[in-house]
């Protein structure tokens, strides 16, 4: 059952600046350690003797980690509190980066999985923390941290190849560089664990635990999130290979990989005032899915304009990601419901992304061409736009 959405207030709670900065810093760890591995895949293949499928597993492991671990995050958050749970999250990401950069294939896979578990926890907890701490500025805070996720990833993607080539240090060094940001985040976030807000967060999460799975609106938000995740991570994983097929150099492909992520961050600057002023986001959902469709069609019909089409796809997928995360807070009435919806949407969403990304890679191998993958993704855009018409309505899940 749903209830009509009340307008949000515009005032930002005072005394939250440092908390906001910490949220941004945590968000900087929730994409780059994963996505910037894509430009290194060919180098990893050659160094470790892997085939394309085995290298592709490196990009799929975090998605399956998101799917497997996300259902357990609400219980952990209720037990340890949001602040302590986020601290564990950053520590896991740092530990995973160290392990995967150590050397052999088992450690690479193990470390990648640990990074994925840490990112999964952060992705689930942050929307709940924002719902609790910034209930009247959900789109603003959500867009801000998604913006920094994209900017950080966009900076790292074009840097990893030069870092790996510098003095022949290799992919292990380029991968290990990501440890810098989690260390800073751990040092700044650790004092938050002592704050009384942890108790408040726990009480809020424990209040009213009706099953989120039984609400139709929850499924609409979840499937919208799943479509966007599959499209975004398919592009993150395979776009460098697509660019290589059309004749771009590895360095150019890595640069466009960064352009994609930078473009995905830009909607955070554009959508904030729009979402804040509208209770109904159906038009925005149609807009972002249309951008994805146009960008994919452009890559098929005019691949010479790869840079332009990459920007369009980045704008669409980034806007869809912000909208999907905003739905988690906007379509719920409390922090506990936001945590449950966040867990549900990310569990099934990343399951879809993980299976879909591997399936699209197999499809490309079968046809020895990436064009069928782009066509399937265009169909996905149509599905996502249809779901957005339902998820974007001005309603909330009833307590």
TrEMBL record:
Asked whether the UniProt record includes Transmembrane helix among its keywords, one would answer yes
Q: Name one GO molecular function term.
A: transmembrane transporter activity
In which domain of life is the source organism classified? Bacteria
Question: Which Pfam family is one of those matched by this entry?
Answer: MFS_1
InterPro entries this protein is in? MFS, MFS_Cyanate_Porter, MFS_dom, MFS_trans_sf
Looking at the UniProt entry, the stretches that span the membrane are 12-32, 52-73, 85-102, 108-126, 138-157, 169-190, 217-236, 256-276, 283-302, 308-328, 348-367, 373-392
Name of this protein: MFS transporter
Q: What is the lineage of its organism?
A: Bacteria, Pseudomonadati, Pseudomonadota, Gammaproteobacteria, Kangiellales
């Amino acid at each position: 059952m749903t209830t009509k959405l009340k307008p949000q207030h515009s005032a930002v709670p005072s005394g939250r600046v440092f908390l906001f900065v910490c949220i941004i810093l945590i968000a900087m760890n929730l994409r780059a350690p994963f996505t910037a591995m894509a430009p290194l895949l060919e180098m990893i293949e050659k160094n470790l003797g892997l085939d394309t499928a085995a290298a592709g597993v490196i990009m799929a492991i975090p998605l399956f980690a998101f799917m497997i671990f996300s259902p357990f995050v609400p219980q952990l958050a209720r037990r340890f509190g949001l602040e302590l749970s986020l601290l564990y999250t950053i520590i896991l990401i740092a530990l995973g980066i160290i392990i995967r950069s150590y050397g052999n294939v088992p450690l690479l896979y193990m470390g990648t999985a640990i990074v994925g578990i840490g990112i999964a926890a952060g992705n689930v907890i942050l929307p709940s923390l924002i719902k609790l701490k910034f209930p009247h500025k959900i789109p603003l805070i959500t867009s801000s941290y998604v913006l920094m996720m994209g900017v950080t990833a966009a900076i790292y993607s074009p840097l990893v190849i030069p870092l790996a080539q510098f003095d022949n240090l290799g992919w292990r060094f380029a991968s290990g560089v990501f440890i810098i940001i989690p260390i800073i985040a751990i040092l700044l976030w650790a004092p938050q664990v002592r704050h009384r807000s942890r108790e408040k967060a726990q009480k809020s999460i424990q209040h009213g635990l009706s099953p989120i799975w039984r609400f139709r609106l929850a499924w609409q938000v979840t499937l919208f999130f799943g479509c966007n995740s599959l499209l975004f991570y398919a592009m993150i994983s395979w776009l460098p290979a697509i660019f290589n097929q059309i004749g771009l150099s590895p360095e150019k492909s890595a640069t466009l990989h960064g352009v994609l992520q930078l473009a995905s961050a830009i909607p955070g600057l554009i959508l904030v005032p729009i979402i804040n002023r509208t209770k109904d986001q159906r038009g925005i959902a149609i807009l972002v899915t249309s951008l994805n469709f146009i960008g994919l069609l452009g890559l098929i019909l005019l691949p010479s304009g790869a840079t332009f089409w990459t920007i369009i796809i980045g704008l669409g997928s980034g806007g869809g990601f912000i909208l999907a995360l905003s739905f988690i807070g906007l379509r719920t009435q409390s922090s506990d419901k936001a945590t449950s919806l966040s867990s549900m949407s990310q569990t099934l969403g990343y399951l879809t992304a993980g299976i879909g990304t591997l399936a699209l890679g197999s499809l490309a191998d079968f046809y020895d061409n990436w064009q069928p993958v782009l066509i399937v993704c265009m169909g996905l855009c149509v599905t996502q736009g249809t779901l957005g018409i339902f998820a974007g309505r001005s309603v909330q899940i009833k307590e």
